[in-house]
Amino acid sequence: MGRGRGERSVTFSFSPVGGNQEGGQAGKIEKKMVRHHDEDEREKISWREIDRRRDRSPYAPKEAPQDRVRSRRSEWVMKKYRKEADKLFMGKKGTKKHQKAHNDIDRYHGTDQFEATVKAYLDQYGLPDDWSTLSLLLDYSDPEKVLQALAAMKDLYEARSPIEKQGFKAKVDILAMTASDSDLRDFAEEMLKTL
To answer: Is the pLDDT of residue 12 over 70?
Structure first.
């Protein structure tokens, strides 16, 4: 068989294992392999073309990258819209002024300004809704407000973590032993029986 245009002939030879090696050529097998010259000089595909072919693959994601960017933006807009709607329904408690007064309770806890800060907050916004701020109000000097905070925390008690429940029981126990107001002390003792 003659070589055609653009073909190269490559010869491989090997000896089988355990064959007769003394005879030199005996037992050798020759195999000819023909490679086409065109294989080495095939068209090189650009990365852009590779990406384009990959995008047409049935295994590639069908969604365009611009859609993903838009969907992230629309999710952000929806979250912002919901947040603003929640603020609207919260009334006074949805304002930045409320948020500052709320944060001041935590900031001034344990200082001389705590009593005045809590009084100003309660006069303006009423009893807070969150567990952590209500627990800070248990250190307030007005027994009536502390009773209200205890009642509100009792409603939120079941949804709390075991550590928060344990901390709440300890605070109620301390109030039951040390409160100077008899109504507050009695309420705390009764609450301990139900926790």
So the answer is: no
**Distances from the Cα of 112 to the Cαs of 6, 115, 116, 118, 124, in angstroms?**
96, 7, 8, 11, 20
The answer to whether residues 36 and 7 touch, using CB atoms and an 8 Å cutoff, is yes
Q: For residue 27, what is the DSSP state? A: T
Residue 23 placed within a domain: no
Q: 3-state DSSP call for residue 16?
A: coil
Task: With beta carbons less than 8 A apart as the criterion, state whether 28 and 15 touch.
Answer: yes
**CA 43, CA 41: separation in Å to the nearest integer?**
7
Whether 160 and 174 share a structural domain: yes
Distances (CA, A) of 123 to 51, 91, 127, 138, 148: 65, 15, 9, 17, 14
Predicted structure pTM score: 0.52
Nearest residue to 138 via CA among 158, 157, 118: 118
